[in-house]
What we know:
Its EC number is 2.7.1.-. InterPro entries: Ptrans_KptA/Tpt1, RNA_2'-PTrans_C, RNA_2'-PTrans_KptA, RNA_2'-PTrans_N. Helix content is 34%, strand content 18%. By secondary structure, the protein is an alpha+beta fold.
Amino acid sequence: MDNQRSVRISKYLAKHLRHEPERIGITLDAQGWVSVEELMTAAARHGFHFSRAELEAVVADNDKQRYAIEDGRIRASQGHSVRVDLDLPPAVPPAHLFHGTVARSVAAIREVGLRPMSRHAVHLSQDRETATRVGARRGKPVVLTVDAGAMHRAGHVFRVSANGVWLTSRVPPQFLRFPG
């Protein structure tokens, strides 16, 4: 499978496993899972055909490990705008985590901190490089440092997704360090 096809399938999965399952007539369970067969049938019914082998290759080869397949079911690892409970246990974060954004968002973040916006949680990276890539999707990246250790000691709950993305409900401004 060529890279262009892989990207098309991955974007299709993101749209329907994270944001709009109803658009193709699938229903995610409480933890975000749907049967692979149900997904493939619904996708084909809506004119987007892919094979089981293509699906498994996209899941296995995705550089961010955005999806998981278990027991004949598939789900997105995080990033949902639809209500799901990924059933991730609380975890002790590293001392510092990182968040990639763009300059036009910095003033608002200084004022109110990081909020989940249309997602269920704020997404944080364990390394500066990943945060830089995330921020670069919307322009010139700005990487913020999150004092995750202090947040945790103050009672904020962190969870880590299957693909290593750290999740928390919000990051108040006092726990953020801005570059420059």
